[in-house]
Recover the amino acids of this structure.
């Protein structure tokens, strides 16, 4: 959504079919990633009956490890099918992004050096949920990648990263037990609470860039989500890791939706 509105704001025609296929491929890769996480975290002992997060089907015994892995692979195959027209239109950059994305769907929790277990999850969320997600759709429509795309990608990526930080704060004690070295485990809960604050500050105030590019609405309108972000940060700072963080995840998702909708409107109205 943000990428499409950025394409429009820069004076390019929007290719709705390619953008729709990019959305479909991204959703399928995300679903595959969650299936892999569900199965592999259970296999590694990260998910137990003491899990504070929402129910996971492998850990609960509702679906077998094998079936969840097959579902993940099926989603990857469907994502590849959806990506064929994208590759034809975008060439080798889209091939590279697609292959790396499919590999990391598994390597986020699987393989010899899973990203989530060595503390690189936050960085890769900024990269893939922000810079590559926004930039990839923008590139498919324009065959370019410029500074406005980077700024929009960082704003979206930082907001996405808030969710993984909240998730990891909630699970810090369980993660310690299975040597899952998220940034929360490495540097402590206070560090990660400050990380949430910094991510929100950067997301909102990077919007100053849009003022200098004659898109003032793209700076102003996302502040409709600002008061919600302030309240969430306050709650996080005064709440210890617990099931309460499941509610915080929902609040963070709501903030991201509101922010991105208004950022998109601001770009479209430029």
């Amino acid at each position: 959504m943000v990428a499409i509105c950025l394409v429009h704001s820069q004076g390019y025609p929007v290719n709705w079919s390619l953008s729709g296929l990019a959305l479909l491929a991204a959703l399928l890769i995300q679903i595959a990633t969650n299936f892999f996480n569900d199965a592999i975290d259970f296999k590694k002992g990260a998910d137990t009956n003491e899990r504070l997060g929402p129910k996971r089907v492998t850990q609960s015994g509702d679906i077998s490890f094998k079936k969840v892995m097959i579902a993940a692979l099926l989603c990857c195959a469907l994502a590849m099918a959806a990506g064929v027209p994208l590759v034809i239109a975008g060439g080798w950059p889209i091939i590279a992004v697609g292959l790396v994305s499919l590999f990391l769907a598994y390597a986020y929790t699987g393989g010899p050096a899973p990203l989530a277990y060595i503390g690189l999850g936050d960085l890769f969320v900024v990269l893939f949920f922000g810079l590559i997600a926004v930039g990839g759709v923008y590139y498919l429509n324009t065959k370019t990648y410029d500074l406005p795309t980077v700024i929009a990608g960082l704003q979206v990526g930082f907001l996405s990263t808030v969710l993984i930080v909240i998730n990891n704060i909630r699970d810090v004690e369980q993660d310690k037990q299975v040597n899952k070295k998220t940034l929360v485990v490495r540097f402590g809960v206070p560090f990660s609470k400050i990380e949430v604050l910094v991510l929100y500050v950067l997301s909102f105030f990077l919007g100053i860039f849009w003022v200098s590019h004659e898109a003032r609405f793209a700076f102003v309108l996302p502040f409709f989500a600002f008061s919600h972000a302030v309240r969430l940060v306050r709650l996080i700072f005064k709440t210890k890791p617990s099931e309460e963080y499941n509610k915080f995840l929902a609040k963070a998702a709501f903030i991201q939706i509101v922010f991105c909708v208004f950022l998109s409107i601001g770009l479209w109205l430029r």
